[in-house]
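Researcher: I'd like a structural prediction for the single chain below. Treat it as a standalone chain; there are no partners to consider.
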Amino acid sequence: MSAFATKGFNANRYLSLRPTPGRPNCLRPGIFTTDLAREFDSVIGVDLSPSMIASAQESAHARDITNVEYKVGTGESLPIESNSGVHWFKFDTFLDEALRVLKPGGTMALVGYKYPEVVGDTTRSFVNRLAFDEQYLLKYWDDGYKLVEGGYQPLVAPVMASAFENVRYVGYPEVWKQRIPEIEVLPEAWIDQRQSTLEELAGYFKTWSTLTDTVAIDYPQFAIVARKPL
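Model: Treating it as a single chain, here is the predicted structure.
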């Protein structure tokens, strides 16, 4: 995720290839606060990436949204006053921060989505292998994205054990029940199904954080050397 905070990161391209929520009060990377602004009087958006913040500010201005404030920061040290208001966070520290900034009765919502699943097509198994096979990209994923693949399940117990109350663990679609029996399945999705070309699907793969990290590359070399007799 640190790669997203670099100066050269193209936030607009990243956002154009990511899914869009179907409801006005749902989240999307970098600029979800502009949707939340329709439901609340004042919204603060925080992201560790200056590029994401700049893109979100442009979106808010284009949509004439004035009740949103954007700040560069992290989940472990939110640039927000006390009593005022994941998967890449140090979660225990983040829970303490969430309790600090939320006013009494405030709600914490940890929302995520998995990699895309191609509906009714053999490409689905290819996507699974590409993302989570040791032969391909699995060894390059960091622990944060592994939480996403697991639907945040390991985070439920810490939230339940914290000072938060009325904790719900929800998801969509029904297939989650096969892996996580305790999840509550919602009647409808908050991210719409979309039609994508294979080119767009390939573009989505390029937004994965595991593909933005640098790796050492060796080039096996060879030569044929001979000397002409004197």
